[in-house]
Amino acid sequence: MKRVIFWVGVAVLLFVFIFPIAWIFVTSFKGPADIMVPTRLFFKPTLANYIYEFYNMPILRELLNTFIVTVFSTFLVMVVSLPAAYSFARFNTGYGHLLFFTLTTRMFPPAVAAIPFFIFFKNLGLLDTHIGLILLYLYFNMSFATFLLYGFFKEIPEELEHAAMVDGFGRLTILRKIVFPLIMPGAVITTVFCLIFAWNEFFFGYMFTRTVARTVSFGLISHWGSVVVQWGPMAVGVIFTILPTLVAGWFMQRFIVRGLTFGAVKG
Amino acid sequence: MSRHRNKARMETLPTQFLENQTAWEILTSEKYFKWLLLIPLLTILAVFAFYPLFYCLYMSFNEALLVKPPEYIGLTNYRKILHDPNFWTILGRSSSAVIVCVGVEITLGLGIAVFLNREFRGQNIVRGLCLLPLVVSPLAMSLMWKYFLEPQFGIINAMISGVGLPQISFLSTDGLAFATIMSMEIWKWLPFSIFVFLAAIRGMPRDVFEAASVDGAKSWYTFRRLTLPMLRPFIMIVLLLRVMWLIRLSDPLFGTTQGGAGTEVLDWYVYRIAFVRFDLGEGATLAIITLVMTLIIGAILFRQLIKALGTSR
Amino acid sequence: MKNIVQKTMAVALGVFLVLTLTSMAPAAEKFTVADIPEIKNKKPITIAIEAGGEEDTLKPFIKEFEKKTGIKVNTDVMLFAVMYGKENIELVGGTGAYDVVIVEASWTNEWAPYLFSLEELAKKYEPEGMKAVQRDLGYLDKGLLRMASTRDGVVYGWPYECYTEMMMYRADVFENPTEKTHFLNQYGYELAPATAWNQLLDQAKFFTRKKGGKLKGKPLNHDLYGVGLMAGRFPHVQDEISSILWGMGGNWAKIVRDDTGKALGFKITERNKALLKAAFETYVALLKFAPPGSLNAFWDFVMAQFSAGNIIIAPALYDSCYPWMSNWGKDVGPGAKIGGAPTAGVQPYCGNFHFAVPKSAKNPEGAYWLAKLLGSYDVHKAWIGAGFIPARRDVVEEPMYKNPDLYKKTGWIPTMLYTWDYQYPFVNNYLHFNSSAFGKIYDFMTELCHNVARGALTPQQGVDKWVKTFTELQTKFGNLPVLK
Predict the structure, then answer these.
(1) Contact A227 C51 (CB under 8 A)
(2) Are the beta carbons of C92 and B256 separated by less than 8 Å?
(3) Architecture in CATH for domain A47-259
(4) How far apart are CA B49 and CA C437, in angstroms?
């Protein structure tokens, strides 16, 4: 009996979390005649939306742009955040104030921050370039990544490093031999989170790009016209926006159970 | 707490580093090394955090309309916003969203994490699937929610009337519309707290729980006396991050109500002032006001978090 | 049966003849892609286009333009809801991001300083100068040209698409004898498409029926509502209330002019206030007879409700929505028939778009010719074929569009033409096309109308709020003063 209740619980949980996403998938196969009518469970599936999306919309280009920007910005985030988080966690640099300040950069409304950035980027010629967007996503993800990594570094026992230092190892050797292997799971999780957040970011992508560096989130809303909403092609777009993050998410969950313990308790 | 721990470590540092230093040794000595590590971060912060901050601070004392040069008007912008009843309504709405969403996410997240904390067939698949809402683009999802919640051709209402209940127009009634928006946000972020808590519970020492169950402790008692205190830092982390993100709530509005039916929240309002009206002065003032409030709440939570991290060690 | 076949064949033949005739005739004098001269500036052009079917229709012409001129054209497709913010910052910032921009009629005032006028461009690039431009502008509807792109007598762009609000109703229900008799008995006048908003209120009330009630003498298996409204927090709620207000003879604000017709300022008179209040009241009253969910609705919702047979009248829906309701009739009920009529008061909101060239354009020469091409006969002909409504009279006045069989593809063109002609004397005085702060006012109006609709403000409070905030916004962002 208890088992039955458990599985019913799991089923409800999965239904709530998965159904809306699954239904997007179903919608993407609906022809225009089936989209705007009271929902029918059975309908004639069509690939028309997929064909439309790939022939008429620059979705492949947008996916490529988003990919470039996401990967490079995440790489830079890690380059910036890993040493910083290590410094905060190990040496308590700035006594927490600096870490808190880093955290607050995300408290600023993006709509307001966007305007000075826009003027700044215009003068530097960075509008509608991949580099510009990479820099913005670096700003966007940096605080979160630093904070998360701070937690992971805290988890690594300081005693290990002290012992190594007493044995005469240099800083870099300690980092390479001791710290780096231990931070790996945490760094992977942070990376995946940054990838997902950058991939899904909309506002900066819309503000700072036009045709060259346009990202996929921006492309998605292009289906919402003033007279027609193209639900079908939009569903296709959504599917292709989600797929990469699904893969990333799947990859992450293997690490997340192992790694996300923030150093507070050690099992 | 960490301050005196640092001091203790200073004493254990090998002293031979202090004499006959090469440039490399100076750089890698703790005094310089810790700042060396921070150079990239501080550079980025200087450009991306200070620049918009000072820009906004400056603009908030000006009438700045983008089309003409800014003109100094003192505290007029602040006075105007703080006297605007609309601002307080919106602020109240945003605050209630923060409280409700964080409350539900943490309670439900804890419950589900405890619920899923057992060995069962297909456990990795189930947990992996539960993560899905988190990875979906919030913008895409808000567009699709509108489609699903549509009274006439949406799937949700089709299911509701399938069971014989009357149709519900989720997004057009005051109150219900905002509850729906909050539900969307909770749907998306609940996996985040589930996973933080689940990971934390699974990382807890087994022996303590085994001892408790040998003593015949009830599961509720174990949860309250053992699990919950050990989860404290994680609850604080989720609380801090989610509070900060929820103040910035606006994504679910984009595809659904666009601020209608009593769902306008702070960030949507700021967006309209700054980006539809292009009133930089008022927009910047709003940004500064919300920033100050967020800082106060954030600082309190941050202090609690540091305390929680310290005590559980 | 034979009769029908004959009739269809006759119609088909007629359509065919008209099609061939019209496609042959204009080639001689009307501007086409072949008339574009050699362009020296070969820099690539970027054009902002609205998302949706629009891009699909324009693409072939852009390709032709590229082939003819050797200039590469990049298209930046975006959502209408974000277009204003995006284009505004690029224009005001002078980034040169766009060579051709889409301008909605209510933004023209604001952007006039950042746009080339057609005269400036024609002087530089057109061999015949302004004469050639005048000739092509002559084909456009005068009212639309004034609303879309004329400010203080200066023309800034080529109108290409418009949407005119129109009343769509269930003709089968309006013609049903049972319904007609009942209505006559209850209200004392004949049931017909409403010509005044209080009539519409009667009809909305009359047709709102519970499940199990009767329509056309047959029992209903769902709730029925009199009207479908777009009361969500989208610009459309403002369009509807404007249609009511103008249809009642009101105006959002009075434009004070001197003897030469030059605008001196705005004034909200007592008459303006009284009629605005009445318009708000009418709208709130109508909402009682609209289906649940209307408070988050735009055209999309009304189309769905209408297609499902849940409403009898869509009092102010964009004319191009009929072609877009591709499957209308299937789920409505037996014998369902759709009818189109002018909105009550015949002064509906007409949305207008035009293509203009910003002063920051990197290749104004190429942009000028592209914009002109997109305003040409061929493109407008393609628009109407794709279910959009063009702004050129030479296209919409073609006899083929009088054929009721084509309404399904084009909307009720004769009704629309009637509306255009009727409203022409009034459009010069609509606030929307005179205030340089209107982009900002428009967003506020949307919020205001929605708040009145959902009851957060009473009609009186709505009027007070309008007076106060309009004065504030116009003073802060506009060029003309608000007079006491």
Answers:
(1) no
(2) no
(3) Orthogonal Bundle (1.10)
(4) 32
